[in-house]
Amino acid sequence: MQYVIIGNSTAALYAIEGIRSLDQEGKITVISDETHAAYGRPLISYYLYGRIDLEHIGYRPADFYTKMGVDLILGERAEKIDPKGKKVILKSGKKIAYDKLLVATGSRPFVPPMEGLDAVKEKFSFMQLDDALALERALGPEKDVLIVGAGLIGLKCMEGILDRCRSVTVVDLADRILPSILDEGGAAFVQKQLERKGVRFILGDSVAKFEGTFAVTKNGGKIPFDVLVVAVGVRPNVELVKEAGGEVARGIVTDDGQCTTLPDVYAAGDNCESFDISSGTRRILALLPNAALQGECAGKNMAGGDAHFTNAVPMNAIGFFGSHIATAGVYEGECFEDITPGHYKKLFYRDNRLTGYILIDCIERAGIYTSLIREKTPLSEVDFELLKKSPALMAFSESARKDKLARRQ
After folding, report:
1. Domain count for the chain
2. What range does the domain containing 85 cover?
């Protein structure tokens, strides 16, 4: 078998392991337009922060590809899929034949139109290791940094560079930080923590144009800066599948085995849709745990297995300067609140099911809440009053406890 994987991040690595769990002999070729072996993308902010060095940013040990029997092609861009000829055409013109193909191309930064942006010399994105390395060279104790975007990417960039420049200002059209992750109260809780660190936020406004070293907002404000980071959002890389005739909605459409509508072509990661069991809708869940599960599922099926990924849930586990946030599901239904100056906790539930949670600085055993959502456990079968205060196995029946403990072994 000739297995080809386009992309070299989380979904790709788990796909490799999924393939090798069933097929130790087939040839695996990985194609990536980056020049680095796979690394932990969330770690690039920690590299700038000084909490990790480049030697330890790898997502797998240095000998991973050799042990897995992978032919790694770095610095080459896949330009086209030929589904009839079952070939991937590279930018260099080289053609790579496949029996089974995985498209794990992830996403790319979205840069909205802003007048004068092309004239800004020191401007950066913050998605790849090369972005972080380039940004690092531009930083200095006399530099003021402007980050456009108060989502996860923008704020992780802020964390990484705050101590490496004079000031950081974050501007966003949304009325709160992390709008896709936190509710209004949770966002205010985290924003206060970050403001105490010295971060300046301008929310409910956006950059209309750039004039030299000033950003002019739609509300008429002028923000001085030396270095610009654009972290407004991302767009899924769906073009290879779309141009080959595969079905694409907001992301690449797959079945629950991660197979696209093209024969023997699979997709996994931030470029494809999942069925979100907490909301009952199909949507892109650009999250590391889902990418890992999708990749493993795809890899096993490429090797002849019968795997299914049917319990996707939006989840986030992030932190800033020692504060920790965990969220999952949707924030709908009744709500249990436990909010103090030191932590923020909300549990959402309806129809005898936990639908979502927000935990800030009280994330211990958050996995128990996640399992309730994933497994759609009826709350009548657990001691929910106990779980509201403390997620513990004691809240489950004896048989449920034994089952959960058995699955951990």
Report:
1. 3
2. 2-107+235-302
Residue 243 belongs to domain with CATH number: 3.50.50.60
Contact indicator for 153, 179 with CB cutoff of 8 Å: no
* Burial grade of 142 (CB within 10 A; 0-12, 13-18, 19 or more): exposed
Token pair belonging to 38: 């796979």
Confidence at residue 389, expressed as pLDDT on a 0 to 100 scale: 86
137 and 216 inside one domain: yes
- Cβ proximity of 44 and 160 under 8 Å: yes
3-state class (DSSP) for residue 142 = coil
Alpha-helix residue ranges (DSSP H) falling in 211-324? 239-243, 288-302
pLDDT digits (tens, 9 = 90+) for 234-293: 999 999 999 999 999 999 999 999 999 999 999 999 999 999 988 888 999 888 889 999
385's CB contacts (< 8 A; 6+ apart) are: none
pLDDT digit string (tens) for 18-45?
Answer: 999 999 999 999 999 999 999 988 889 9
How are beta strands 100-103 and 2-6 bridged, if at all? parallel
Residue 32 contacts residue 73 (beta carbons within 8 Å):
yes
Contacts of residue 9, Cβ cutoff 8 Å, sequence gap at least 6: 38, 41, 59, 104, 106, 269, 291
